[in-house]
Request: fold
Amino acid sequence: NAGVTQTPKFRILKIGQSMTLQCTQDMNHNYMYWYRQDPGMGLKLIYYSVGAGITDKGEVPNGYNVSRSTTEDFPLRLELAAPSQTSVYFCASSATGGLTEAFFGQGTRLTVV
Amino acid sequence: DAKTTQPNSMESNEEEPVHLPCNHSTISGTDYIHWYRQLPSQGPEYVIHGLTSNVNNRMASLAIAEDRKSSTLILHRATLRDAAVYYCIGGGSNYKLTFGKGTLLTVNP
Reply:
């Protein structure tokens, strides 16, 4: 059982470049989340989705876009990367939103130079 | 989600119990209290959650105050592998989990 899988694990981007962080889960969970974690800080919610075709903003959505065309996948798109987006990104999924256990991926470490 | 307050850091000795406190005075009646932990260089992992009653599982116990304004995560016998940042989250009724800065637990051998 793979759980939540994120790719890539590491990436270096140049300022102004774009990329997509991939997240897929095999637990048939409706709820999926993207967080970012800056050094020494807690996790901040970027976007979340309550099901295929439905997404909503979290605390820090600026500079990011998401889509949810299938239950399994929840990609995070960075347009025009900036140094402020250097962070570790975590994807998570949950069967019933915040009422039960959420499962997290191992993270994508992104550096923008 | 409810705002939570946790100590920045705590220290324990191996094989001793650890009590990690959390204040969540603004929690709504339908919000759960969740605990997650994050080991170094890993994603957060679920520890335990509850609504009103005390909860036990193989990892820990959760003691919830009667007024639900505070809770305590109890690790019955700390091991070196329990060294991590522990996050208390009051929320879930709006499908989101909002993380604070958490408590850094150090376990001494």
